[in-house]
Amino acid sequence: MSTEAHTPRSVLVTGGNRGIGLAIAKAFAAIGDKVAVTYRTPTELPEGILGVQADVTDEASIDRAFTEVEAAHGPVEVLVANAGITKDTLLLRMSEDDFTSVLDTNLTGAFRVVKRASKGMIRLRRGRVILISSVSGLYGAPGQINYSASKAGLVGLARSFTRELGSRGITANVVAPGFINTDMTAELPDETQKEYLSRVPAGRFADADEVANVVRWIASSEAAYISGAVIPVDGGLGMGH
Ligand code: NDP
Questions:
Q1: Which of 37, 109, 232, 236 lies at a 20 to 30 A Cα distance from 137?
Q2: Architecture of 10-232 per CATH?
Q3: How confident is the model at residue 220 (pLDDT cuts 50, 70, 90)?
Q4: According to the lineage, what is the superkingdom (predicted)?
């Protein structure tokens, strides 16, 4: 991090009550930013982190959450669209609802929060949008046609956003984690976990902090000239795609 004095920013992380989102929220709070997280399920949060209830599939609840954050911390200057779900199954067993519900949360959910945040960022003439994708978005994964499609869609979102708003001091980037130890991956059968592990050149899975540190850096002034990029945090699994 730069040694310049840090001016606290209003940071919002969706799905920040646990897993990678919570690690990201803590990373920003540790450098003095004003951090809010959205939650669906009320959870005890670390001191100093503001919780606001929102479901990213519900535009009205997103608007209420932003209004709450703006009143407490000012306009959101750093948005991390992290909320995400999986509904893994092979194509022939995947229902249309399995597909559209994952898209609605992971991709349309990101669109909803990015749109809401961009109003304040345009006024501020600065901002950072970070979309949490997955190695699965560009690498693909059997059983994840819905999830991979949603995560690949985030790349197009960040790139078109950059072309629309890149001249206004706002960047949008995608962070693509590989296999991170969280509730989402704990649900996978042992055999699947072993299979993934055998493919990761780093020979291990990562902790959520290792994603959080990269997200924090992408949001820093040091990364002001990076936009529309996909940054892998995957131990070499996707080889930069
Ligand atoms: P978790 O399952 O541990 O947490 C998911 C978070 O998203 C929770 O806070 C959850 O809230 C929230 N969420 C889910 N649906 C909604 C919704 N409709 N509205 C609002 N919030 C919602 O996941 P991880 O921490 O592992 O993953 C975080 C992100 O990182 C996801 O986008 C995931 O796809 C991505 N990722 C994870 C990887 C991994 O290995 N773990 C690898 C690559 C990418 P609630 O507590 O209310 O359910």
A1: 37
A2: 3-Layer(aba) Sandwich (3.40)
A3: very high
A4: Bacteria
